[in-house]
Design brief:
The complex is a heterodimer of chains A (264) and B (163).
Chain A: H1 10-17, H2 23-35, H3 37-57, H4 71-80, H5 85-98, H6 118-133, E1 142-143, H7 147-158, E2 173-182, E3 185-193, E4 199-206, E5 215-218, E6 222-229, E7 232-239, H8 242-263
Antiparallel strand pairs in A: 1-2, 2-3, 3-4, 4-7, 5-6, 6-7
Chain B: H1 2-23, H2 26-42, H3 52-72, H4 81-84, H5 91-103, H6 107-117, H7 123-130, H8 134-152, H9 158-162
The chains are: A alpha+beta (264), B mainly alpha (163).
Chain lengths: 264, 163
């Protein structure tokens, strides 16, 4: 018990109405308040505020959960929309961060550890980049002007419906594409060029897994971002300027993501 | 994993309530809850024990802070009737008063107050959600209560008094 003159702090009054005090102290303060009407009124006003807040919003917690917030809906919606670029790069950062820590970031069905064969696809893609990017006369089999034909042909050979990203918006013109042998069968290869002659390529091949996090690999002069989405591995290769390559990859990723969403 | 999802699911009604009070807009609130659920499920494996409920409140609080930050960069279009609508009598008016009073709070104070009085979190839990010491939570609460009292006692924006 506190005596009449023992100081009651304002902090204690808050703790009192919020149920943060031990029982005996609570009792003491209740008594003290009875003798201090001014503080009693203050405490009553705080209680009334809390009551109004609960009266205004409490019922929301009793409402049935709307369909779109049901867990099953949230899960399937998330799968359908694929992952946002922000989530992908965030994941890539986390993967880089935890490698060696042994924890591994795992999103839904996204494996942080490289599945067997995945790195092989990336290295094949980078080899193809190095081989064809220097080619002046015959960098591609089918010119970019025959985009529709190329889409149909490569989709048929891979057995997957492919879309060839349009990168005009970031100043990259489709030079064309070609079919390549890959570790998992046929691979599609597209080449883009900037007005200054910078070349970027996209390599697509069937992957053994349905999704992976975004990964990055670099050599002295070349680099690549690669990931698997909807069972297709994508490797975007270009000169070793990570920022530039990341922005190109972002455009590619967003278009692939959009076309996947359209399919459903 | 089953228990994790079950805990998340069981918290959805409370998250909706908290989000509604935070944003005072039903659609924005449910969007916020949806984003919170997506984040939570995606990073399910980042969650190493602890209280799922507090963790969800933390995600929602942070997402709302990001939302307000991005809003701050845009011009704010507030509905004109907010200041001009005549006050109704009865409980509806009381509800609107508390709503307006909450709107005048600084974000961190509003979070702290709502987590305590609406969601029933302990000071310690709120400190975890906000990532600050308990003392800071208490001073936020105290300031929130002073501000709301002043507002309800009539220290309203000049515009309203002119009318």
């Amino acid at each position: 018990m506190i005596d009449r003159d023992s100081p009651v702090t304002e902090d204690e009054l808050h703790a009192y109405i919020d149920g943060e005090l031990p029982a005996d102290r609570k009792e003491a303060i209740a008594k003290w308040l009875a003798d201090h009407p001014e503080q009693g009124a203050l405490v009553a006003s705080w209680r009334a505020q809390a009551e109004s807040i609960r009266a205004r919003y409490g019922a929301v917690g009793e409402e049935p959960v709307p369909e779109r917030l049901k867990l099953e809906q949230v899960l399937s919606h998330d799968r359908r929309n694929g992952r946002s670029w922000a989530a992908m790069t965030a994941a890539a950062a986390v993967v880089a961060f935890v490698l060696g820590g042994g924890t591994g970031w795992l999103a839904r069905g996204v494996s942080a550890a490289a599945p067997a064969g995945f790195d092989v696809i990336a290295s094949e893609a980078l080899d193809a980049y190095k081989l064809y990017v220097v080619e002046v006369r015959h960098p591609v089999e089918v010119p970019g002007s025959e985009r529709a034909h190329m889409t149909q042909w490569l989709s048929k050979r891979l057995g997957e419906e492919l879309r060839i990203p349009d990168l005009q918006a970031i100043g990259l013109k489709l030079v064309g594409g070609r079919l390549l042998p890959g570790p998992t069968g046929a691979a599609a290869f597209y080449m883009y060029e900037s007005p200054s002659g910078e070349r970027f390529t996209i390599y697509c091949a069937k992957a053994g897994v349905s999704q992976t996090a975004l990964r990055y690999t670099s050599e002295e002069q070349f680099a690549a971002f690669y990931w698997v989405d909807d069972k297709i591995a994508y490797v975007v290769s270009g000169p070793a300027d990570r920022e530039r390559l990341e922005s190109v990859t972002k455009s590619v990723y967003e278009q692939i993501d959009k076309s996947a969403a359209k399919k459903l | 994993m089953g228990t994790f999802r079950q805990s998340v699911e069981a918290t959805i009604p409370a998250l909706r309530r908290y989000a509604r009070a935070l944003t005072r807009d039903a659609d924005i609130a449910d969007d916020l809850v949806q984003d919170t659920l997506v984040r939570a499920l995606r990073s399910e494996h980042l969650f190493h024990g602890g209280d799922v409920r507090s963790w969800l409140y933390t995600i929602l609080t942070n997402l709302n802070r990001n939302r307000l930050r991005s809003l701050a960069r845009r011009p704010i279009l507030s509905p004109i009737e907010d200041n001009d609508a005549p006050d109704l009598a009865g409980p509806e008016a009381g509800g609107r008063d508390i709503e307006r009073a909450l709107a005048t709070l600084v974000e961190d104070q509003r979070n702290a107050l709502l987590l305590v009085v609406l969601e029933g979190l302990s000071y310690r839990e709120v400190a975890e959600v906000q990532g600050v010491p308990i003392g800071t939570v208490m001073s936020r609460l105290a300031r929130a209560r002073v501000q709301i009292k002043n507002y309800l006692d009539g220290e309203r924006p000049a515009l309203r008094r002119v009318k």
